[in-house]
Amino acid sequence: MRVLFTVFASRSHLYNMVQLAWALRSSGHEVCVAGQPDLVDMITSTGLPAVPVGKELTPGSDGWRGKGMQNLDVLSRGLAAPHEEQRGGGWEYVLGEWTMACGVRYESLADQRMVDDLVKFARTWEPDLVVWDAMTFAGPVAAKACGAAHARMNFGRDYIYRLYQDYVALRDEQPPEQRDDPLEDWFTGRLARIGHTYDPSMAKEMLTGQWTIDPLPDWLRVPTDLPTVHASYVPYNGRITIADWVYRKPEVPRVCLSFGVSLREHVGGAIVPVEDMLGAVADLDIEVIATLDASQIDAAAVPDNVTLVGFVSLNELMPSCSVAVHQGGYGTYSNALLHGVPSLIIPHPFWDEAECGVLFEKRGAGLCLTPEEFTPEAFREKLVRLLEEPHFRSTARELQQEIHDAPKPLDVVPLLEQLTAQHRGRDSR
C-alpha cells in the first residue's frame, strides 16, 4: 500500500514519525513524507522521499521564534491546563481557549496553501493511508480528498483531545444559539474546497483520526475512548557522528543536562538560569554533559566538571548517564526511559512537561522541580537524591523493561494494514 506521512516544519515532530515510516517501508510499502519546504532537507536526510507543500514556516528564524513563543504560550494556557481547571473555568473560558488553540494549530501550522498543495498531491499519488502529525490538520483534509484511511500520530500526552472533551461537555449545556464551534468553522471551509460538506458528526474523526498511533507507555497517557494503536518509542536522532568520548565509561557519575534542540530552535533555551544550575553542582564529584551552545551560556561561566556540547545523540549518551536533567520534553524523557535513567525535570510550560514531571515523581522514576520552586540549593538537593537513592534507578530500570516489552513500529504494521483496509475509501468523492 501507499502511505503518506505529513508533518509541519519541526525537527522533533518529524523525527517522531521516522521509525514508523521506515517500518512500513521495510515491510514493502511505498512511503513518502510531505511537509513545508524548510523541512525538505531534514526529510531527505532520513532516507525518505520528501514532498514540499505550502510555504516556508522557517522554524529557526527570529520571526518564527517570536511567533512560536506566542503560539506555545496560547497552547500552554489551554491545552496544558489541568483538566479540573479547564472545566472549572466555565464555558466562556474553555471556548476561548479552544478557539485560540484551534487558530494556533490550524492557521499557524497548516495554512491554506499547505492544505491545497497536500490535497493536490494526495489526489495525484492516491495513498491508501495518511499518517498525520497531531498538530498538522492538513492531513485529515487530504485523506478525505483522496479517500485514504487516516491516522493521527501523537507526540506526547493527548491534550488536544482532552480539551476538546471539555469543550464538548460544556458546549452541550449551552442554548443552541450559543454553541460556537471553531472546529466547524475551520473544517467547513477546507472541506468545501474539496467538494465535501462538513457534518458535526465528523468532528471527532477530523480531530483525532480514524485511529490514533500513540508511542507513550500506559502510565503517561491521557485516558481516552479513542481507538488506539500503541507503537512504543524507538529513538531517531538524525544524521549524527558519534565522538569517542560518548562511549567512554565515566570515572565519576555522569549527568546529562539537556533542554531540547527543538525548544532552542523555536523559543530559546532553559526556563531557569543555566549558570545557577551549573554553579550549584560545581563542587560535586560528577561529570556534567550539557547540551548547550553559546546562545544559552557564556563559556567563561562553565565549571571544570561541566562539558558543553551543542548537540549529542541522547540515545548514545544516556547509557553512560546516572541522571538526566531536562525540560520534560517527549523526545528527551523517552530517551531517558529507554535507557533506565532517572530524570530531574524542570518543566517548560508549553505542553505536557509539568504534568509529566508530576507523573515521573509519582511513579518513582524521577523528581520534578518547577521554575517557581527553583533555587540553586533545591536543584542541588534533588540531583543528589537521584544520584544517591537507589530506588530511583531501580524504578527507571523497571520502566525501561516495560518499553522493551511493548510493541515496536515494525510489530504494528500488520494492524495498520488491517485498519487501512477497513477504513480506506469511506466517504470519499
TrEMBL record:
Q: Which intervals hold domain Erythromycin biosynthesis protein CIII-like C-terminal? A: 277-419
Q: Which GO terms describe its molecular function?
A: hexosyltransferase activity; UDP-glycosyltransferase activity
Q: Key word Transit peptide present in the record?
A: no
Keywords, sorted A to Z = Antibiotic biosynthesis, Glycosyltransferase, Transferase
Asked if Transferase is a keyword of the record, the answer is: yes
**One biological process term in Gene Ontology:** antibiotic biosynthetic process
Q: Which domain of life is it from?
A: Bacteria
The record's section on CDD domains has: GT1_Gtf-like (cd03784)
Among InterPro entries, the record links this protein to:
EryCIII-like_C, EryCIII-like_N, Glycosyl_450act, Glycosyltransferase_28, UDP_glucos_trans
Q: Which Pfam families match?
A: EryCIII-like_C, EryCIII-like_N
Family that this chain belongs to = Belongs to the glycosyltransferase 28 family.
Q: What is this protein called?
A: Activator-dependent family glycosyltransferase
Q: What organism is the protein native to?
A: Streptomyces filamentosus (Streptomyces roseosporus)
